Amino acid sequence: MHELRTQLAGLNPDILFLQEVQGAHSRHAMRISNWPALPQHEFLAAELGLEVAYGGNAIYDHGHHGNAIVSRFPIVRSENTDVSSHAFERRGLLHCEIRIAGIEEIVHCLCVHLGLDERGRQGQASTLIGQINAAVPRGAPLIVAGDFNDWRNRVGARMVRELGVTDVFRDERGRPPRSYPSALPMLRLDRIYVRGFQVQHVAVHHGPPWSRLSDHAALSAQITIG
Q1: What beta strand segments (E) does 26-158 contain?
Q2: Which helix (H) or strand (E) element contains residue 77?
Q3: How far apart are CA 167 and CA 174, in angstroms?
Q4: 170 φ, ψ to 5°?
Q5: Radius of gyration of the chain measured on its C-alpha atoms
Q6: Which of 46, 56, 91, 176 is the most core-located residue (most Cβ within 10 A)?
Q7: CB atoms within 10 A of CB 12
């Protein structure tokens, strides 16, 4: 976590979309000498001077984990939705409304972690799309990011078709980026979708030191409103 904090600070992020952050883990805290006293998302937010919202999805005897959004800008509202398709794979959608100076409308940000099972993942995608259509005005700026486990890009095709979003990494063949495993990415599991933004620059952060910090490569995008 300490090295992750250093690497993230080097990116100078405005908004972070994090999956499977540990809200608490008593076993790790006892076993690892420098385990942060704060929950992981609060540890990162405090050290980077950012705000945070957390949605716990998986709860067990020794702790819990879930999604988090960490923001340089005020988070005015957050809501976490449990979209687990079965008891052995807890999944959620964290929706935050963020106020950014110079942008009149609220920016809607959703941090996503979908399941491994294709049928369950399609149901989770339907919930995600329905929630966005119901809660996000069509003209409002929108960012949806996270681990979609969507190696066949079936959810991605629905996102583009039904929500009018853009995959920030789309190339001339419309393919999302390879992001797993982080040491040598082969599978296209992670996404950043936007609506109401222009994409300026994107990057996949893989190999050392990132491969020591997560089994997924980190994705980043520089975007501007309009």
Answers
A1: 51-60, 63-71, 75-82, 92-98, 107-113, 142-147
A2: strand 75-82
A3: 8
A4: -55, 135
A5: 17
A6: 91
A7: 8
Amino acid at position 8, single letter: L
- In the sheet that 51-60 helps form, which strands lie side by side, from edge to edge? 15-25, 63-71, 51-60
Residue type, 209: P
With contact defined as beta carbons under 8 Å apart, do 144 and 193 qualify?
Answer: yes
CA nearest neighbour of 23 among 69, 66, 53, 61: 66
- Cα 5 from Cα 21, distance rounded (Å): 13
Six-digit token string for 137: 């005005």
Residue 102 gets which letter from DSSP? T
- Domains, in order of start, for the chain: 2-225 (3.60.10.10)
Local confidence pLDDT in tens for the 226 residues of the chain: 889 889 999 999 999 999 988 654 455 556 667 766 677 878 888 877 789 999 867 555 555 468 999 999 999 999 999 888 776 677 889 999 999 988 999 999 999 999 999 999 999 999 999 999 999 999 999 999 999 999 999 999 999 999 999 999 976 556 899 999 999 999 999 999 999 999 999 999 999 999 999 999 999 999 999 8
Dihedral-angle region of residue 186 (phi above 0 means left; psi in -120 to 50 means alpha; beta otherwise): alpha
